[in-house]
Amino acid sequence: MLNLVHGSDRGLTENERRVVDEIARRRDELVTLACDLIGFDTTTRGHNDDPPRDEAALQKYLAARLRAAGAETDLWEPAPEDVAGSTMTPPGLRFDGRPQLVARFPGVGDGRSLLFNGHIDVVTAEPRDRWTSDPFQPEVRDGKLYGRGACDMKGGIASMVFAAELLASLGLRLAGDLLVCTVTDEESTGAGALAAVAHGVRADAGIVTEPTNFEVQIACRGSLIPTITVPGRAGHAGCPQPHWREGGAVNAIGKAGVVSDALLRLETDWRLRRSHHHPYLSPGEIVPVQIAGGEWMVSYPASCRLVYHIAYLPGQADADGWGGRVREDVVEWVMRASHADPWLAENLPTIEWAPEVPAAAVAPDEPIVPIMLAATTAAGRPGRVWGMDGWFDGATFTLNGTPSIAFGPGNGSALAHVADEYSSVDDLVAAAQGLALAAIRFCGTA
């Protein structure tokens, strides 16, 4: 059981104390909500042609709850053109069977509006034999809620939805609008939040309830994924080969070393530049994640394919927040190294780019940041300002006019995407308390 402190000991107002105590008293309802969400199989699609799963059913469930609590709800299935043309989305992406949801609790004054956001999709539960219990049949054991998404991020969604419902049930009238938005596709493309922005979802600030372990995360890195194909020339590996200018074979795997060495030097160069450091994020990285080459076990490989994951800092982004300048860096370093190699100079590698996600950051003095810090402290979980080395939907909202932070229950770096994923029940309670306090203090009350 969460060890609550009396409101007066936390510097809370009477209304805030009421909210904190009521969330603690109704903790079993919060757990039931989180269990209900985990029970929907919303495993993300690995490919565009994967069928939808329980996304529509989950969104309808939340819409009904939030509507019953007094919210105006909008449940819609985006059209492909809503996200077409973005560098985040693959060609032909559709949302059939995967609707988005926004619920608005209208403010009664001229207070600031606040967005609560979370993604309902989860990664695969495979290999399922590593789980102690069924990943879609949630269980509470020793104060921990187990199930796929308990940490990333249905626990956070449960906390934010419950906080919004609780405020409404107590008759607390916020001066500004409180929006609750749940989206799909974060784990695969980020297209759900992009579709929400296209639909008009925006506010004066946003809180994305990712599992930050109560850190207030104000920045994230963007990422690029290039596929670099290095050409060679086939030939019999068991026969001595003449010089390539005389028609001899060229080993594409060996030539791929020219590219990998160049990108290793580029990463080192980034780390030596003062402008490529951030107070809350790790430096940019260029990580080889896939390699494939060769056609037959006794043939010189005619090509070699290298795939990289490139994480870059907000300061490395172009004027629009995207990785245009990073792309230019990569192309320049690969081509410079290739031109120094006689074979590659005449047979240049090709580079193809997968959809990317952008870097983003909000200032530490953005109003939602100190408010969230104070609110989580008042809820008994003191946090710190930090950054997310990965990526979250807050970047999309931030770059489109809603400065957004990440804050939520659970230790995402340790427990997201693992077998026996869990969130502490006490953490779910504390997160709901902190989110409710943040809404009161940011939006104001009538």
Explain what you see.
33% of the residues lie in helices and 18% in strands. It contains twelve helices and 17 strands. The protein has a six-stranded mixed beta sheet with strand order 1-2-6-3-7-16, sandwiched between helices. A hairpin with a 2-residue loop joins strand 4 and strand 5. Helix 1 (14-25) runs antiparallel to helix 12.
Short description:
The chain contains 12 helices and 17 strands.
- Percent of residues in helices: 25-40%
- Give average pLDDT, whole number: 95
Number of helices: 12
How would you write the strand order of the largest sheet? 1-2-6-3-7-16
Secondary structural class:
alpha+beta
C-alpha termini separation:
33 Å
- CATH H-level name of the largest domain... which superfamily? Zn peptidases
* Total domain units: 2
CATH topology of the largest domain: Aminopeptidase
Low-confidence stretches: 1-8
CATH arch. level architecture of the largest domain: 3-Layer(aba) Sandwich
Strand content: 15-25%
- What is the chain-wise order of helices and strands? HHHEEEEEHEHEEEEHEEHHEEHEHEHEH
Shape: elongated
Give the class-level CATH name of the largest domain.
Answer: Alpha Beta
Determine Rg (CA atoms, Å): 25 Å
- What is the count of β-strands? 17
Describe the largest sheet: 6 strands, mixed
